[in-house]
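Re: export button greyed out
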Amino acid sequence: ENIFDRSRMTPKTPIKNEPIDLSKQKGCTPERNPITPVKIIDKPQPDPWTPTANLKMLVSAASPDMRDREKKKELFRPIENSEQSDTPDSLQYDIVDDSTVEEFEKQRPSRKQKSLGLLCQKFLARYPNYPLSTEKTTISLDEVASILGVERRRIYDIVNVLESLHLVSRVAKNQYCWHGRHNLSQTLKKLQEAGEMQYGELMTFQHKEQDLEYKFGEQKKETVPDSQDRPLLDFSEPDCTSASANSRKDKSLRIMSQKFVMLFLVSKTKIVTLDIAAKILIEETQDTVDHSKFKTKVRRLYDIANVLTSLDLIKKVHVTEERGRKPAFKWIGPVEFSGKTGELRGHSPSSDPLPETQREACARYQICATGKQRLTRHASFNGAQPCEGIRRKVSSEPNSPRRERQDEYCSKMINLAAVCRQKIEEDTRNSNITSPFSLFPVPGDSDFCVNPLPQAVFPVVQAEVPSLSLPIDISSQAPHPSTPAASKTEDGKPALVPNQPFLCFPSSSVFVLCGGLQESNLSETQPTAGDKGTRSAEAQAAVPPALCQKRGSHKCTLPSSPGDHEEPAAKKLNMEQSDLPLSLVVPKKPFESPKAESTPGSSCPPAVHLETYCLDLASPAAPEARSKESTKPLDCQEQEKLFQNKDPDEPPPGNEYIPKENANQPFHPQYLYVQPTAGLSSFNFLFSANQAPSAISLASNQLPSLSVPCVMVPSAALASFPLVCSPSFSSPLSPVPDGSFSAAASMNFSMSSLASTTPVFISTTAVVTPKVSPAPSVEPQQPAHPALHLSPVLTRSCSAVKLDSPMCVGHPVTLLKLQQPSSAPLTPKSIRPAHHEAFFKTPGSLGDPVAWKKNEGNQTRNASSVQRRLEISGTSAD
DNA sequence: CACTCCCGCCAATTA
DNA sequence: TAATTGGCGGGAGTG
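Workaround output, generated via the alternate export path:
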């Protein structure tokens, strides 16, 4: 009998008949133990007894195919009856029993019987959904293939998808480890977070496929190449063995699977049409969109969908659209994930940088979004750990192509930002906005939450236009219009709470910090991250985002980029970009609950301040940036020079940071002046602080008063500071109200000289580089969305999103764009964004749109600076 | 005819 | 070099 079985096992494709059994190891599943032939006996044996069984035997003996069919039938029966709907588990049992049946449907296995979905069910039936932790079940591909009577190729399809969800992990060649669904929720959560970052915006618009598509296209193009995405998926989980395995290039199926799942998790409707998914995935992967590619993608999606369906995570549905009904899938799996950011951290803090980043972002986001501020979380976040994680990432790969990292980074950042946005939105929706945002105009919050995000995402893209708007805000700013870049700069807007994440984006790791910034804690982490990034990245980093310092005073440094900009302003710009968002965010938080560690209290204005500070800080870093800047356009270079000079001064913002990098007190004074001008109290504080104290001390001082978080960002943009700060502060503060706030903020920015800020952002963007160019493209789209309401927030979110897509590089740009657009539409709110843009532009300002482009380069610089700052902050950290 | 998606060639990776 | 993985797309089964 045993022999018999074996023969059966071997499918027609004799490929490998080998003694399959051997492989099985531990625990197989309940049903059979593959390993020993004996197992085989299980089912088969019974057969012999029955007439049918005998028949089967004969048949199988006669032809492998028949055997297979029979097997399938057995397995399926239950399944077939219920169709997929049945739960796999039940199936399993059934299967076992069925042996008796044999109705002889044998007829040729219909295509359905051979479907991947069915095969997958059979596969899953073999393993427990929740295996005991103690027992590790290993899966031998050969064995399974033979048992299931299919070629190995098919098993790969299943395993790859399962692997993407961490239900299994590859242990070795031909060996996989079965984990079951224990970690499924965590994995889904991660994917959701990542997805939000990447697709959040898109999904919001889901209904509008076009939008999405467009956006996607732009974003992706802009941003980085898809490689970015992978990381998300990768998350290395703690699981058992796996870790090692991922090397392959892409494993598109795995990545696709993750992305596909992300789309569901991000989608509000939880329904994703195949064509949209295909388009999105194609874009990510590659630009080319030829039809054939699309078809191929769809084929793959079907493969994935079949497996996911078997997992009961999705089900097929049809959506009717204008053009008719389209095939689609609806997510029927868990939507809420118990895991919390905190938990996530716990998972593998060190293991994957990205994951951590995401987590942090999430955490921050939550905080922000919620408005509730979870001090604890923040605190934890603030904790060096997060930062470390980021740093690790950065540092770890320093050598490797920065871009890639950056991209990843960016993507992560973006993702985070996106997630945050979404969350925020949700939060706002669900529970009106929380205090944090309150800063923003009230409406903003709510709007912000709801509309903004969605729109923001894309709309933001429009940023370009927004940039214009910005100018509007402040005529003076107009100059900046430099334009596109400006829009990007808007990222600054991100300042809005939602954006925080964005902040991160800029420098990548740094940004993450931003989130923290807002909260306060963030700052610390960010800095660290930033530091790493900057260091490794040198120029790119230069601008490190901000770091934030956290807590109480939060100071983040946002690094402006290292010098890129000619003038301080330029620096500021860079910083700002990244910062802006932060600042925005910060403000909100402050408003909401000062109490929080950081005492976010300060509200918008504070945020601004922060930025300023950051800028200052950045300046120190600037020098480094300079080098990179060289690459930048003329403007940049000039700016760089300026920065250099300033650098020394810049330190202020990040108190701690500064010291490390450079103590640039001198400059501070300048800034200080500016701020005062602004008139806002908060600004003033900041400035004074900056001035008086050494860079660091100052920063800290100021921050504290304000709300710190923001500060962090600013550091980078010190230069811009003055301008920005003052404006923002003044108005923002009082305005606290939502709309006003944003407006004010924006105003401020613009006032301050958007240019300066803008430059910063730009630089950031630039850093992103590749993305930069893309960003522009994006911008156009954004306009459509107009995120009038929350523009700031939205913008940020948007930017963040975009960033994601771009991954590292791109995202910054994207963000900017988004912001602008949003800003434009929104009035007050929009203003802010605009301001950001303006800033960016301004620096360049001077006018050149070109400058914006250059910004890209700057961004990189910024990033580096940011990183530096981060580092500093880290060290100095509160 | 449009959807699905099976099948297996064959290239990229690994061992 | 052989084996393992897995991208890919032709084209067949279904409705």
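Confidence is low (pLDDT under 50) at residues 1-106, 205-247, 339-878 of chain A. The button fix ships in the next patch.
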